[in-house]
Write a structure and sequence with these properties.
The protein is an alpha/beta fold and 386 residues long. 26% of the residues lie in helices and 24% in strands. The structure holds zinc ion (ZN). The site of zinc ion has 5 residues, from loops.
Length: 386
């Protein structure tokens, strides 16, 4: 904690004199057998010393406890609504005791800092052999929620439920120290990998409706930004495959712009294959498997809004195809969900603590309605004369 001593009147001289007097008094007192704490306590005749509190946290995440929280239109203004508890509100601005938060519907509102538990933005740490997992911040984002079911299996399994359970399992893995057997990928209690410093789910089973509530893309990315995440991993499952495949049709989309995202995607993809290949299924997939990225032809930015809004290593994991009977049946089991979670866990551990590249990534592809065209209005690029 940074405490500053500020004297009244002639601030520096008075403060220095006070500090010297306290030090001298403490030395004399200790020689006389009086403990320093008592010595400081009895030195009431010294000039008054004002303690200045540390700067308030300006950005971070605000956890809303069980009693919920009131959202306001502005500091000391009108109450908008009372939000349920079990929610994380990211904030990047502060005015006095008020935080400007982003809501799950991508709006902004103000909350009283006294009504929430504040965790400041974590400082970025560089991945590699010296990385301290005990200080890591990870944001896990279970895809979809509430009326947005995501994909639905032939027998009615909802992607939103599966994604949430898998993210919850990843968090459980990260909540304790583990040992990983890299020969077969098994993850067990042990002391090799410490528990992660902080793991935040954008929607959590402890939240409203057991975590089945609606979240905007802007909100999801804001949680990762405000938390200062070392990795941002969105958990999904896929629909509408194109072809039969010999191996699971897993895809991991990386942010083409945010440094490190491609390596994170490559490693998670490799671990998914390791986890899934022990299961039997008539696998289906897209024409392009593995780690990949999509670029919007109109803007040159990432096609997926979640990744476009991310500045830290960020990926969207599409484990398997929930729209396929075999793969839906697997996703319905605890064993397969645990295998999925362990793959994400191992991929993140490798990303943070090594410089491994994994199998590599597909090059970003232009993707969108106008894919393959330079412009819709007959524009021609100037061609250099030979
Ligand atoms: Zn999805």
């Amino acid at each position: 904690m940074d405490l500053q001593l500020v004297g009244r009147g002639r601030p520096i001289l008075v403060a220095l004199a006070a500090a010297s007097a306290i030090a001298l008094f403490a030395i004399v007192a200790s020689m006389m057998g009086v403990r320093t704490a008592e010595a400081a306590f009895v030195s009431t005749t010294l000039p008054p010393v004002q303690v200045v509190e540390p700067e308030p946290v300006r950005s971070g995440v605000a956890f809303v406890g069980g009693d919920g929280v009131t959202l306001w239109s502005g500091p000391e203004r009108d109450p908008l609504l009372a939000l349920e508890g079990g929610i994380t509100l990211p904030f990047l601005h502060r005015s006095g005791d008020w935080l400007l938060v982003t809501t799950m519907c991508n709006d902004t509102a103000w909350v009283d800092a006294a009504d929430v538990e504040i965790v400041p933005s974590a400082a970025a740490e560089t991945p590699g052999s010296g990385f301290d997992i005990a200080g890591a911040t990870i944001v896990l984002d279970p895809g979809h929620g509430a009326r947005d079911w995501g994909g639905v299996g032939p027998s009615g399994l909802a992607e939103k439920e599966v994604n949430l359970d898998i993210a919850d399992r990843v968090r459980d893995l990260m909540a304790a120290s583990r040992v990983i057997d890299w020969s077969d990928g098994s993850v067990d209690p042990g002391a090799e990998v410490p528990s992660f410093g902080r793991v935040i789910l954008t929607r959590d089973v402890t939240g409203p409706e057991g975590g089945d509530f609606e979240l905007g893309l802007g909100y999801r990315a804001s949680v990762a930004t405000a938390a200062g995440a070392d990795a941002f991993v969105s958990i999904h499952n896929n629909t509408v495959p194109r072809i039969d495949t010999d191996i699971p049709g897993s895809e991991v989309y990386y942010s083409a712009a945010a440094e490190g995202s491609d390596r994170l995607a490559s490693l998670i993809y490799e671990e998914l294959l390791r986890s899934f290949s022990v299961f039997e299924a008539d696998w289906r997939g897209g024409e392009l498997l593995g780690a990949r990225a999509r670029i919007d032809p109109d803007t040159g930015d990432d096609y997926y809004g979640l990744l476009r809004r991310s500045t830290m290593p960020a990926v969207i994991v599409e484990g398997v195809y929930i729209s396929e009977p075999d793969e839906e049946a697997l996703l319905a089991t605890a064993e397969f969900r645990q295998a999925y979670a362990e793959a994400v866990y191992r991929g993140i551990v490798r990303f943070l603590t090594t410089a491994e590249e994994g199998p590599g990534v597909n090059r970003p592809e232009v993707f969108g309605l106008d894919a393959g065209t330079v412009s819709g209005n007959g524009c021609q690029l100037p061609v250099r004369a030979e």
